[in-house]
Design goal:
This protein is of the alpha+beta class. The protein is built from eleven helices and 22 strands. 26% of the residues lie in helices and 29% in strands. The strands form five sheets. Strands 10, 11, 12, 13, 14, 15, 16, 19 and 21 form a nine-stranded antiparallel sheet that branches.
Amino acid sequence: MIQKDITDLKIGVLGGGQLGRMMIQSAINYNLDISILDPDPHAPCAHLVENFQVGKLTDSNLVYEWGKQFDLITIEIENVSTEALKKLSSEGVSVFPQPEIIELIQDKRKQKEFYRSNNIPTANFVLTEGKDDVLKHIDRLPAVNKLGKEGYDGRGVQIIRDEGDLDKAFDKPGLLESLVDFEKELSVIVARNERGESKCFPVVELSFHPVHNLVEFLFAPAQVSSSIEEKAYQVAVDVIEKLDLIGLLAVEMFLTKDGQILVNEVAPRTHNSGHQTIEANLTSQFEQHIRAILNLPLGSTLATSPSAMVNLLGEDGFTGNAKYEGLKNCMAMEGVYVHLYGKKQTKPFRKMGHITILDSEIERLKEKAREIKQQLKVKA
């Protein structure tokens, strides 16, 4: 357990993308000393911290040498060297979330086996070693084929509906998961500190891009019954406690048509499904992550208003210097908050920013979200 005053701690963050950028914005309020390691010299965090180092996050020697200077290390992306983090942890550096948990979550196969062995509700699945293995399970179609590793932001996930799709099967270790006939896709972000205190943010409802599997819209709170809401909270707390994770965990879930909650995947960090908390909740997910890893009292997750979040994705067919069409019109709308991620270059479906919308009326909230999605385009 960390003994220093929080303002005296040296904190390292692996990853300098938009999640790190928004984490820094919260850290400033506590005078925290944040350093960043990221492979991109032009990453969103590059000019926001005094100590920004360029380096590969999966390079074990580099991460280890970089990490020795810190009291505490955390992540904003899972694709990091857990070997280096384990070594640093054994030498007295606090690492949250814990390296063993990051390692488990890096591999969707291990993640799913963890759910099964710990009685966490999830879709039925079978592990596959490659394309030939997938072909042996025609009886399981339609199904979702997932890569064990390397999948991120919608990549490494595909639906195999019938035998005609089998040629698309991944030829690497993965899994074949029953296609869930769901009513809604939900997410709960839950935080936990070293004292074992845990708190959930309100359940949110997600709408994904039909092709690229990226969140397009988010609505909070989710339009579900109080019993479903309570069930989602119980599952989220159960997962973080059984993992024994310290920090923040995003738990993505399916609500089935017969009222079951099934865990789809988890992320051991701040998450796209919690961006609206910056404006809509008493504590943002980024501040809550900081509180959790520093073993501080967790903040209230109370929502002050219904909210929506619209992801700003680079338009298909455009690559180059980013231009934001329709931005001024959207800024003129009441209750609209713009977050651009500092990425100069756009490319198709790259996450360039997000818009949060607050409104006391749910239908008006949805109208504004649809209007912003239609008007605001990221082009080159």
